[in-house]
Design a protein that fits this description.
The protein is an alpha/beta fold. It has helices at residues 14-26, 31-45, 78-130, 145-152, 156-168, 185-192, 204-212, 222-228, 248-261, 278-284, 296-305; strands at residues 176-179, 197-201, 217-219, 234-240, 262-273, 308-316, 322-324, 337-344.
Length: 345
């Protein structure tokens, strides 16, 4: 095979050389390469492209090649021919990549336009929802979370587990805090057992329901409430399906705040969906307030990273059956939820 040091006077198989170059540029032959080869064969048959070239000083200086009865223009040398054809090859490759880039850019622009339209429609719906009616009253909420929880969610198992866990390590003056307290099932269980507890929820309707039951609840963002609370002010912090409402960054911030706000030896009890159990995973997507499932091992890792010590894992199902798996040595399938009990050191 010829290379850059091969003299111009050498008879070189330019077609074979170009085939090697095309394979280096395009990779293995595909449909486009094969069609190109067919087109080149057709042009060669028409006398436009020939397969072998010799220099003007070679034996074909009279303008004819061996076995070729048709005259053709004299060439300056095989290197000049290869340079011209390589330049053409590069131009075609660049144009091809430009076309692909243009298709990609148009696709991105189309997706961004659709997103902009969706955001605009969403903003209009929000404006319509927040705009008072003609009688000055705000329209009904689009999503009634209280009705949804009453009909489709059952926080009672978590309330029973949390109460049982808190009693084990309860100190006389400990105060419990429930994040996203909802309708106050856990607060009611604590109150019935004589445990001082307060709930915080960003949904004003939920806070009203709690206060209507004589429970202590605060209407606030959970992060703002934790930031404003004194450090080491709670004996236990409870979170049922809270981490599933947050991003990874928010979960990390929450765990850091929990570590600061718990007293030494205080408890953090969090429950989430056991995604290894398919029916439970289907229930997860039933709740529109949840953002993403959080595997048990991920929450354990993030809790330890925040400085909390993992005390126990409990897996439970809708029938109240429970199983402890402290080491998480294997997958646990037939249980709907897992509960992590962490202790502030």
């Amino acid at each position: 095979m010829a290379d850059i040091n091969t003299p111009e006077t050498t008879d070189v198989d330019v077609e074979a050389l170009m085939g090697l170059i095309r394979r280096r540029v395009y990779g293995l032959p595909d449909a486009r390469y094969i069609m190109g080869e067919i087109e080149r064969a057709r042009l060669k048959a028409d006398g436009i492209v020939t397969g072998r070239f010799a220099s003007a000083a070679g034996p074909q200086a009279d303008g004819k090649t061996d076995g070729d009865a048709r005259p053709r223009p004299r060439r300056l040398g095989w290197k000049v021919e290869v340079k011209a054809r390589v330049a053409t090859l590069i131009m075609r490759a660049v144009r091809m990549h430009f076309r692909y880039q243009e298709i990609f850019n148009n696709s991105v622009v189309g997706v961004l336009q659709l997103m902009a339209e969706d955001l605009y429609a969403y903003e209009r719906r929000l404006d319509a929802t927040n705009r008072p009616g003609e009688d000055g009253r705000a329209p009904a909420a689009v999503f009634d979370r209280a009705a949804f929880e009453e009909r489709l969610l059952d926080p009672q198992p978590f309330a029973r587990r949390s109460l049982s866990l808190f009693r084990e390590l309860l100190r006389e003056d400990d105060v419990a805090l429930e994040l996203f307290c909802g309708r106050g099932e856990l607060l009611a269980a604590f109150a019935a057992s004589g445990i001082e507890a307060v709930g915080v929820d960003p949904d004003a309707s939920m806070v009203s329901l709690c206060k209507g039951r004589g429970l202590s609840a605060i209407h606030a963002d959970i992060f703002e409430h934790l930031r404003d609370s004194q450090d080491a002010s709670y004996g236990g912090i409870f979170a049922w399906k809270v981490v599933e409402r947050l991003t990874n960054e928010q979960t990390a911030e929450l765990l850091g705040l929990v570590k600061r706000k718990l007293r030494h030896g205080g408890l953090f009890v969090a429950s989430a969906t056991n995604i290894d159990h398919l029916p439970a995973l289907r229930k997860f997507y039933l709740d529109p307030t949840l953002v993403r499932p959080v595997p048990a091992r991920l929450l354990a890792f993030m809790s330890e990273q925040s400085g909390l010590g993992i005390h126990r894992f409990t897996f439970s199902n809708a029938d109240g059956e429970e199983m402890s798996e402290p080491a998480l040595a294997r997958e646990v399938y037939p249980y709907d939820e897992y509960t992590v009990l962490a202790v502030s050191g």
